[in-house]
Amino acid sequence: MDSDTACPNGGKHKLVTDHESGEMSCSKCGITTIVHEGTGD
């Protein structure tokens, strides 16, 4: 469930992927981004 993708708000933060909702969220600052199915964008 963890990702190596850096948070856009802080390069040292890591985004966590929720595969059920298709979202990635930062475990430290809470920012959430939507991941497009199949592309990872």
UniProtKB/TrEMBL annotation:
InterPro entries: Znf_TFIIB. Residues 6-30 form the TFIIB-type domain. This is TFIIB-type domain-containing protein.
